[in-house]
Amino acid sequence: MSSRRAVLAPATVLFSIMVAHALLETARDALFLSRLGPQLLASAYLVIAAVALLAVTAVRKWGGVRDPRRMLVVFLIGAVIGTAALASVIAVQRSAVFVLYVWTGLVATVVVPMFWTVVDRSLRVAEAKRVFAVIGAGGVLGAMVGSAVASALGSMIAAQHLVTAGAIAFALSTLVVFVLAPRPLDDEAAPLRKRHEILSRRSRRYVWLLIIVGLVSTVTLTLADLTFKRVLSERLDPGDLATAFGAIYTGLNFIGLVIQLAVTPRLLVRTGVGGALMVLPILLVTTATGFTLTGALLAIIALKLADGGLRHSLHRVGSEILYLPVPAVVRDSWKPIADAVSHRGGQALAAVLALGLASIGAGARLFGAAITVVAIAWLAAISIARRAYVAQFRHTLEAGEIERDARVPDLDNDSVELLEQALSSPDEVEALAALELLARGGHVPALALYHPRATVVRRALASLQGELRPDVIRVLGHLLSHSDPEIRAAALAAASRTGCNCEQLAAAVDDPNPYVRAAALVGLVDDRAHEKTAAAGIAALMAGSVGDRIALVHAIGYTPHDRFRGLLNELIARREPAVVREVLRVLARAPQLADLERMLGLLEDPHVRGDARRVFTALGSRGLHRLIAALDDPRTPLGVRRHLPRTISRFASPVAASALVARLLREPDGTTEFKILRALGRMRTTDPKLPIDTAALHEYVRRSVADAVRYATYRDHLDAQPDATPGTRLIGELLEEKQRRALEHTFRGLGILNPLDDLRSVHAALVGASDSRRSAAREILESLAPTDVRTPLFALLDARSADERRAHLAELAPAPFRSHEEFLGALLADPSESLKCVVAHYVAERHLVALRGDLARLRPIVAPPLVIYAFDQAIARLDA
Amino acid sequence: MPDYNPTLLRRVLMLRQVPLLAAADLDELATVAENMIESRLPAGASVARAGKRVTSVHLIIEGRIEGNGHAWGPRQLFGALEVLAGRDAAADAIAATDTRTLELPARDVAELLEDNFGLLIATLRDLAARMIRIAPPTSRLPGFSSDALGLVERVIMFRKQLPFVGACLDALTALAHTSEEVRWPVGTVVARAGERASDGLIIVEGSLRTSRGEELFSGASLGHLETLANLHHIDTIETVSAVRALRSSGPAMLDVLEDHTDVGLAMIATFAAAMLDTPNHMN
User: Fold this and answer.
1) What pLDDT sits at residue B2?
2) Are A643 and A674 within 8 A, CB to CB?
3) Are the CB atoms for A813 and A709 separated by under 8 Å?
4) Which end of chain B is least crowded, N or C, by CB within 10 Å?
5) Nearest chain B residue (CA) to A439
6) Which helix (H) or strand (E) holds B57?
7) Which chain A residues contact residue B170 at CB under 8 A?
8) What is the DSSP letter of B98?
9) 3-state secondary structure string, chain B?
10) Residue A504: which pLDDT band, with cuts at 50, 70 and 90?
11) Quick check: helix, strand or coil at residue A869?
12) B195 in A contact zone (CB under 8 Å)
């Protein structure tokens, strides 16, 4: 469907419906006020509310809303038949006027919401914000035309004949709906099965909130309408009412149309839905307060102008948009009810309130005071709904996402029992898995030491930490004679922790197995009688194989003592990964033995990095301060620096966060910068309350957006060049990556600023394929992005062509390049080292001697060797 | 009060018993477990249809799935290669008996790997180890001048190697910065059988011979898969002419993978596709 038809077709449908409704409404008001008088209006509202609720409930129960389009046609046919029947009896039956009033309200209650349900199903939020105003304008125009026709007819024919005209108009609108009503979209993001129910529950809660907003708004608007009509009926002759109402409604609708077309779209874009919805209640508070205080006719006219001008334009469009984050399945079944409850229920409440006020003899000014109070409540409700609106989009995104941060649950008695059952399995794999989970919770049972599989027993022994429990000590005695040497060694070492059993240890110093030997030697090192033997044995193990050294460290791990500090450092210096890893495991348990400078160097090695990080964490603030100093020290090797952010993030403290944020804006290395971002993101996700310097992060986000804008503009320029070569394609690919990366940095920065808003999902949805998810993400981003980055960010995300992007970016984008050489010169001057290198290579390959001067001028002095070499190589090729 | 979730705990216990996940972090396993759905497949139920997209990876808890002459039993993963490679099923697969599985939707697999580096590395190691047996084809490199290799030349070379075909330029640039150009005379042993592989090499010029008599020329890569898989060299390899090569260290490769998970995912997809294209592969 073309975009013009997408707007004009529903606008025409609404136009036709509103012409019919306005005709009928004018006839209804004129007949009611002239034949029954305004004192019965409140009762009529109560009856409309009751009938409308019954009708909507019946429709939901029997008709369902699986196909809103078909339902709309059915409702309109009903409207034609009912209105025609009333037209035939209204001249003779006085009570039929009351029925007409109720009937008109009922038709509006079911037909108009059903039309908006049809439209909601056919548009995304971003589209809706653009086109709802025009569609709504169709409605306002229809109401205007309907009122004008009614006014003209009213001066020629009796009011009851307007009812027949209404029936004819509904018949015409049925045809229009049949031909033009839009078809629903079908790619709404499907939530994961188990999240579906959560999303539905949250959506229903949100709909209830919207019902409350609707109720309060309707109470305010109905009270305003009643007050206005009351004043008018007191001042005008009953015979002039039809013409007067027709003329007034025409005027109001004209104002509404102008607002709808000129104000609504702009206001929605500038202030968002929440801001736009605030306008009407603010005007009502102001005018009603003015009327209450002064009783001036001008104030009540101003109140009606605000109501008539905004109710069917800004208010209606904004209220419809509030329903768009609700999944179609919930929206379709709940919205008719929500509309009926909030509209007719609100009218009923207002009627009760009006009757109450009338019963105490309240004058129009007291009505004005009541309008002020309820409008203030309306403002409060909108401010809550505004937050809920964004949250609802967030829930929609979450429902399509994976669960990211699950943790192994804590163990209680039932879970320990479950795992002990698995531990007793003869299946080694199952038992080991259970043991690991038990050990993580510090629940290694003595039972594990009896397991028939040696591997399980060895792992259980290795998991024993701290003071041994009596039940474990009892079993250890039995394991000292185990056939598996590693188990014997562990038992020996573990037993020596409970007090030196020198005889057993001495007997084991000559054991052929290095684990047993090492355990015995380490156990005897404090015993005067055996200290020389122990020292010699330990020296022999040090000089032995890698296995011997691992066994030695393993044994030291059971009793880490200060006397072993030098030995452990010596083992680290040998750089044998398996040994170093074992040493680091010991140091993580005894961090006081660690040499900080050596630990820092080990961060470079991915094989032991995780263990080195554990040692730093165990060192506490001493470790943290050394890491922060290293991050700020330009002499720290790049290979170490790049792993400092994550190590620092493990401390999860305000000091750690502050150090990382402080470094973010001045870190020259791109990889380290990215790692700082990731580290901060992780810290804030884990603890969203962790304080950070938001101003610095805001600045970083701004800078990242500027980077993305620059790369996008470069790429647009490159794409516009004729004759793509492999060289330009490589540059283009790199620019695209750079732009993507800069956007990722932007979203990560925003994610750190808003840790509860899952910006990662927002980013994924914005660059993903699903229109509905992108639409939801856009709304969330709109509410979160600082105003100074919002425009360029959306220009990057939304623009469909280079021209459109440039038009939105305006002065943020680099100025257009006068020549290809000037463009390449800009790329050579870019901060990105990889881009410089690729462009230098391209310049040499194409022999672009005009750029030799740029190459010489922009050749970096301090940069990685390959970057400097790229410039030297290019210059040499140009000179050759 | 402890946060006791028996279902999650049982699933973690089950996942830990899968060889592929033996080295993964427990919390990473909890994340996978949280995203799985328990399925009961009656005997004869269709699990995959030939020519149709495989929608889930199934971890079999009990029972058996059969298809294309293979059978998958408890603790085995069905559909993993197809999902990782984004391929359709080659043949129908059914539950051979009443089968209970933990099912992970295909669309979540890449995201879970991207989010959980331990899982990504474990998967990559497993696939790299299996790729060694497949012996990926080599593509000849363009001729380079005898000057030292620049950054762009290095990036071009990496792009022609199977593990890096899908890698982004940013990642390859990072790898290029840490790589080193080496030159060896004739008769140099560059790798010994049984020695743990710690570097990947791309031959720029010259030739080498393996202890099984296979000749390696310009464009051939050696040691990348072994290094990724953390395995030993199978052959001793010796230069038969003067050789110029580009060497990347294992730690540098791991660093690049950690910073660019998209590279890891691209490697996994490439390896999985290559395995599916190999006759008689084991899923």
Assistant:
1) 44
2) no
3) yes
4) N
5) B26
6) strand B56-62
7) 734, 737-738, 741, 834
8) S
9) CCCCCHHHHHHHHHHHCCHHHCCCCHHHHHHHHHCCEEEEECCCCEEECCCCECCEEEEEEECCEEECCEEECCCCEECHHHHHHCCECCCCEEECCCEEEEEEEHHHHHHHHHHCHHHHHHHHHHHHHHHHHHCCCCCCCCCCCCCCCCHHHHHHHHHCCHHHCCCCHHHHHHHHHHCEEEEECCCCEEECCCCECCEEEEEEECCEEECCCCEECCCCEECHHHHHHCCECCCCEEECCCEEEEEEEHHHHHHHHHHCHHHHHHHHHHHHHHHHCCCCCCC
10) confident
11) helix
12) no
Question: What's the pLDDT at B88?
Answer: 92
Percent of chain B at pLDDT exceeding 90: 44
Buried/exposed code over B76-100 (b: 16+ C-beta within 10 A; e: otherwise): bbbbbbbbbbebebbeebbbbeebb
- Spatial strand order of the sheet with B56-62 comes to B37-41, B99-105, B56-62, B77-78
Which tokens hold the place of A135? 């569609």
Q: Interface pTM (ipTM) of the complex?
A: 0.84
Element (H, E) at A490: helix A485-496
Q: A28: closest CA among A204, A188, A154? A: A154
Chain B residue with the nearest C-alpha to that of A193: B37
Task: List the one residue out of A794, A874, A865, A870 whose CA is nearest residue A835.
Answer: A870
B26 in contact with A, Cβ within 8 Å: yes
Q: Tell me the pLDDT band of A75, cut-offs 50, 70 and 90.
A: confident
Question: What pLDDT, on the 0 to 100 scale, is given for residue B280?
Answer: 63
Chain B contact set for A425 (CB, 8 A):
none
Helices and strands in chain A, H and E counts: 42, 0
φ, ψ for residue A647 (rounded to 5)? -65, -45
Give me the residues of A, 687-746, that contact B with CB < 8 A: 730, 733-734, 737-738, 741
What residues 605-624 of chain A have any CB closer than 8 A to a CB of chain B? 605-607
Residues on chain B touching A833 (C-beta within 8 angstroms): 173
Contacts for A598 with CB less than 8 Å, ≥ 6 apart: A569, A572, A573
Q: What per-residue confidence (pLDDT) applies to B64?
A: 95
Is A412 at the interface with chain B, CB within 8 A?
A: yes
Q: Which of A118-122, A505-509, A600-604, B213-217 has the highest mean pLDDT?
A: A600-604
pLDDT of residue A164 exceeding 90, the answer is no
For residue A500, what pLDDT is reported? 56
Report the C-alpha gap between A78 and A170 in whole angstroms: 9
Query: What pLDDT digit, counting tens, does each position of B216-252 carry?
Result: 888 888 888 899 998 998 889 999 999 999 999 988 8
Identity of the amino acid at A442: G
Give pLDDT tens digits for A658-711.
999 999 999 988 889 999 999 999 899 889 999 999 999 999 999 999 999 999
Nearest to A212 by CA among A289, A119, A319: A319
| H/E segment holding residue A375 | helix A364-399
Cβ count near A562 (within 10 Å): 9
